[in-house]
# Entry
Amino acid sequence: ALSFIYTSFLATLNNKVKNKWCKYYNSDVKEPVHPSDVLFFNQHLLPKNGIALDLACGYGSNAICLAKNRLRVTAWDISESALEKLSIRSKQLNLRVDCEVRDILKNPPQPNTFDVIVVSKFLDRELIKNIKNAIKSNGLIFYQTFTKNITDKSGPKNPNYKLDDNELLEFFSDWKLIF
# Structure
């Protein structure tokens, strides 16, 4: 049996957005096997223990990677379909990943709750301050998303969901950049 945590905000989810992503994750789109490059190539930076969040996790390749690194992992996404697949995959790998259907725009992470947050292929500029505040002292954020200067056919068509040059650096200008 699969189990999920539902927040009290579930009833207020934007149905159009939720349906879009459920349809996507129920399609024949191949699940990614590897986590985002920024996490995969920098796993050596992860703490030996702690609490990690895969925010807007999709299929959860980042969550799987974090769990393999012995972190306590929570994975949030608006799509129950994606989380069902992640839950099955994590159980098959004998890894624990706590999956939560969550509209992160309406219910962002609380301050000082995570040692590591991974964000991949997701951008909402209003959420950046919540992400930064959710990191505990000496915590890490692994952030990788689309930029406007890349003409790759994948990714969002709407330029509002793509970063401008150096925009991510500006959001985190008061943080120490490691990579």
Remarks:
- Helices lie at 15-26, 37-40, 61-68, 80-92, 128-134, 167-171.
- The beta strands are 5-6, 51-55, 72-77, 97-101, 114-120, 135-144.
